[in-house]
Design a protein that fits this description.
19 helices; mainly alpha; elongated
Length: 309
Amino acid sequence: MESEEDFHAIFGSEPNLAYQEQNIHEIQKHRRLLENELFFDRLLKAVGIDQASKLYPPHSNQDLQNLFDRIFHSSAPDHQKQSLIYYILKDLAQEKHRPETFAAEAYLPSRYQIFIDGLWQLDRLKLEDALDALTSPSLIPTFPDEILYTLCRHAPANDSTLPLAYYYSVSPPLASTKTLFAFFDRSCQASLTEAFYFSRSQGAIRHQKLFEQLLTFVHTSAGDVRAAKAVELIHLPLNEEEEQWMEEFLTSPRQAALYVAKDTVMMRKIAKGQMKDAGAFGSKLSGEKYDGVNWTDLREGLQRGSKVS
């Protein structure tokens, strides 16, 4: 990129060339959905250009030239500047100035094209297309936590395939707490057992926090999902410390709003064969029925059984 005349060479000299209103509204909508930061905003920030939301999307031809000038005058290497221009050309989708043509003429390495293709799709929440690009083995992971977080937040509510595929392909560091917890929720959704073992791999402090999140996930899930996850939960191979965490967490007054939390503790004791403990703990439960089980009847049965044994 040798001179500012490159603007006309790249975008043409048509003075009315600008983003369509619908395109501007779509970009602004997606910025809001992405917690007010597009991946293009991150790219601009990476080359030292701040206040991205004031520059992008450009509302006029002059705004487009101003954005180009900021990119052109940045201290970034040429391939980074070209990558940003490639992204903008994808927005405009001009027949005469296609992004692929620009990339070929600028000798932009294919891995940069693939990376920008992925981020451009991600900024439009086209998650499957984004994943295809961003898991390319040619890429050095960039913004991996942010990408994983976006996939966790915006993948279909009952399908964790996309975030899990990205995690196992790229191995993001999970340095961000919000990314860690968003990913862990998706892991619980896919397999409570796998999530349980994952929590053990995260160090002592994170282990307990994630284990408590696992318990919360089970008890805030809906209907049939909660029932299935609860069965999976009470059969997990907990160690002594995890047993203590579970009972303390589910019987804490702070967790009173968690649906049938104490019932889970009761069923865990039954599953372990601790009938006497289960009977004693059951005395704290009401006589109301839950899913056809009357805890008073069950408690009395357990007490009779423990006397017989």
